[in-house]
Amino acid sequence: MKKVAFKTLGCRLNLYETDAIAAEFSKQNYQVVDFNSEADVFVINTCTVTNQSDKKSRQVINQTHKLNKDALTIVTGCMATNYKEKLNADEKVDYVVDNEHKTSVLSVVDAHFNGETVHPDQFDKDVFNYAPAEETFHTRSFIKIQDGCDNFCTFCIVPKVRGRAISRPANDIFENIKKVIDFGYKEIVLTGVNLGRYQFENYDFEKLVEAILEIPGDFRIRISSIEPDGYSESFFRLFQNPKLTPHMHICLQSGSEDILLKMRRMHTAREFEEIAMKLETDYPQFNLTTDIIVGFPGETEEDFKKTIELAKKIGFGHIHTFKYSVRKGTRAERMPEQIDERTKSERSEIIRKLANDSKNNYRKSFIGKTQRVLVEKINKKGLATGYGEHYIPVIIETAGLKKNEFYNVKITGIETGEEPVLRAKLLKSSE
């Protein structure tokens, strides 16, 4: 039995694709092992959204070569698409499989071990041909509903490495979800590049989610990262259904109208604020998280101040902060007034501190309240850890609980810090 190890960098879409590929290897009698173990095959699913992403991907490739230089190394994902020729010339890499051919990774490996001369590009292109994974690296099951993007933000390389927007057939999505529910998964995460632009026949994103919520079973639905455009205001009514978790990661990027215009974003700061206020009004304690880019070309101190003011006003549950990274081939690469790295770092640190305070305050607001926690792990002390419906981490101070089970708990306290964790006690049936 040959051993295969996987490493995933970047987005939840990559996580879904790695899970599906790993499941296929397992079905074909490969032994899936930890990435830091010795293996016959290493599969690296890369990210290229920033320079830092490229750096991490290269570090993993180098690490793999040191672990076992005789192992077969497959590099796939967005960096494999963006730097295909360069990676093909790297002696540490055996095969480079771009995103369009990612479903063929197992076929490439099998052909190699059968002594065949093979090139990944000879296989059919298909970004949706992933079988439902019975065993994954996660308690929750990621479901890919869409790929690619047509927005062409001036800073973003995603349309180049993921292609134009394409939606998965609705019936395939429904069947995928039904199968993973039968496998025992209790949390389904809808993922894609630009979810709100889902459109297949008579299904848009709102109708798709509404139909998914009608699938029978004891499970909940979580929406992965999404843009603040492409779906109507009526979409938010769906959060009245207890199966749809009160959490969305909606990408803001900047609080300055001028910078959003330069970024070619499909929303304004005011429109974003209106979405945030509606969610807070209709669903108090709704967990709204976001992305913010600092140091975009031409970002003045006044522009940055507007971002801070909007972030404080909204009170995000979490903020992912990115220093603007020049991506070759994007319109922003050619823009004047590029910001120096020192200023980017200073602004990033200000947002990071603001984000940490905002996260702590948000999570403290749950003390004394209840959550329905899906247990993901049992820690060294024998206590269960998992996430409540608002996507906040919880430690349940009760031993003997089981993984992949829902438990109703009362939040009793918080451990503050970079990653504040709530502590909870198990609710009795009478409470």
How do you describe this structure in short?
This protein is α/β, with parallel strands linked by helices and 431 residues long. Helix content is 32%, strand content 23%.
Structure description:
It contains twelve helices and 20 strands. Strands 2-1-3-4-5 form a five-stranded parallel β-sheet, sandwiched between helices. It has a five-stranded mixed barrel with strand order 16-17-18-20-19. A three-stranded parallel β-sheet has the order 6-9-12. It is globular, with a radius of gyration of 22 Å. Helices cover 32% and strands 23% of the residues. The model has no long low-confidence stretch (mean pLDDT 93). The protein has 431 residues and is an alpha/beta fold.
Rg for CA atoms: 22 Å
The number of helical segments is 12
- Category by helix and strand content: alpha/beta
Strand count, sense and barrel status of the largest sheet are: 5 strands, parallel
Approximately how much beta-strand content do the residues carry? 15-25%
| Rough outline | globular
**SS elements, strand count:** 20
Distance between the termini: 51 Å
Task: For this entry, give a set of tags.
alpha/beta, 12 helices, 20 strands, globular
Ordered list of secondary-structure elements with their pairings:
Blueprint: E1 3-8, H1 12-27, E2 31-33, E3 41-46, H2 51-67, E4 72-77, H3 78-82, H4 84-88, E5 95-97, H5 105-113, E6 141-144, E7 146-147, H6 158-162, E8 166-167, H7 170-183, E9 187-191, E10 199-200, E11 203-204, H8 205-213, E12 220-223, E13 247-249, H9 257-263, H10 269-282, E14 287-294, H11 301-314, E15 318-323, H12 341-364, E16 370-378, E17 383-387, E18 393-399, E19 406-415, E20 421-426
Parallel strand pairs: 1-2, 1-3, 3-4, 4-5, 6-9, 9-12, 13-14, 14-15, 18-20
Antiparallel strand pairs: 7-8, 10-11, 16-17, 16-19, 17-18, 19-20
